[in-house]
UniProtKB/TrEMBL annotation:
Organism the protein comes from: Hevea brasiliensis (Para rubber tree)
Name by which UniProt lists this protein: BTB domain-containing protein
Source taxon at top rank: Eukaryota
Boundaries of every BTB domain copy: 162-221
Pathway where it operates: Protein modification; protein ubiquitination
Length: 349
């Protein structure tokens, strides 16, 4: 049909037919949404007007047929002629027979067919749930988040309008009071009350190296890399506890749980006790006693016992009493009692 024209804007495709006579016609044309997803629209007429919507024939449409949600509107150029508006349709479109909309009306002369796409989904090649080709609220939020993180990264790296100096064990860093205050109630208190940090705009974090402190700042600014987190997680755990950064403390605990082994289990147990990390403490005790790995650290255990807190020692021996066979319970209970009452000496496995 030569006397026709298709225009698209955003999610709307409009087919203007200038002269549609009394004969039957069928003319597929290419209509594209703003995303570039190809569709064919055809119209044929005898007693009824039939509107069909189907994909542009291609390998992509065959392997990944679209799921379209749309509304059709047919209007005639005749004055005061009410348009025909379809219900909202949602169809998996493979062939020209997947969607046919009959309009019981006689059309002559010029008329317009509008197709408004409410959504258009594509199934991934490897299977799974179909996803929209248009940005959703979640996608837009993700784009916004990435943009914000890039800005925060520049603020930190280039010290843009930085208003606080941080002295570490081996160097100084620049940061922003607002970011620190929003991340930690301890920092917020420093800058809110009449403390020296507020007056001098200076913080001393001399128990951290500059590299570890930079990892802390990168976490607070949302730009930390995974390898930096793993490298500095023990220092980050101490900082999270000191400055009351709960989400960082939880992240460190979960990370330290992931790679407990014979070489670090006693250190992890001590950290768990020091910072009251119940999940990590339970994980270390389970590793040592439920799995019998305490025999792998027999050379380190005596030194650990000499330095460990007595309350922690009691918990360890109670774990032994729970896990090991009852035949050993009396002897182990005696050892526990002697150690807890202040008996000096070493404990040999």
């Amino acid at each position: 049909m030569a006397d026709s024209k298709v225009e698209t804007i955003s999610r709307l495709a409009q087919w203007r037919i200038e002269n549609f006579g009394p004969c039957s016609y069928k003319s597929p044309i290419l209509s594209r949404s703003a995303s570039g997803a190809g569709k064919h629209l055809s119209v044929e007429k005898n007693r009824y007007l039939y509107v069909r919507l189907f994909p542009e024939p291609s390998r992509a449409s065959k392997e990944q047929p679209p799921i379209a949600r749309f509304v059709l509107r047919v209007s005639n150029a005749v004055a005061n002629r009410r348009p025909y508006i379809s219900p909202v349709h949602e169809r998996l479109l493979r062939t020209c027979d997947d969607f046919v909309w009959p309009v019981d009306s006689t059309f002559h002369g010029r008329f317009i067919i509008d197709v408004e796409f409410l959504d258009l989904k594509i199934c991934p090649l490897n299977g799974g749930e179909a996803s929209s080709i248009w940005p959703s609220d979640g996608m837009m939020q993700s784009v916004s988040t990435q943009s914000t993180l890039r800005c925060l990264s520049r603020m930190l790296d280039e010290a843009i309008h930085a208003d606080v100096t941080i002295h570490t064990a081996d160097g100084t860093l620049r940061a922003h009071k607002a970011i620190l205050s929003a991340s930690s109630p301890v920092f917020q208190s420093m800058f809110h009350h009449d403390l020296k940090e507020k007056e001098s705009s200076t913080i001393y974090i001399e128990d951290m190296s500059m590299e570890s402190c930079m990892a802390l700042l990168s976490y607070l600014y949302g730009t930390i890399k995974q390898e930096d987190f793993w490298k500095h997680r023990l220092a980050l755990l101490g900082a999270a506890n000191k400055y009351d950064i709960a989400d960082l403390k939880n992240a460190c605990e979960e990370s330290l749980l992931e790679d407990i082994n014979s070489g670090n289990v006693l250190e992890r147990l001590q950290e768990a006790w020091l910072y009251q990390l119940d999940k990590l403490k339970k994980g270390c005790l389970t590793y040592l006693f439920d799995f019998g790995k305490i025999y792998d650290v027999r050379e380190e255990i005596n030194n650990f016992f000499r330095q460990a807190d007595r309350e922690l020692m009691l918990e360890m021996f109670q774990e032994v009493l729970t896990v090991w066979k009852p035949v050993y319970s009396q002897a182990l209970h005696y050892v526990t009692k002697q150690w807890y009452s202040g008996c000096e000496g070493s404990f040999m496995l």
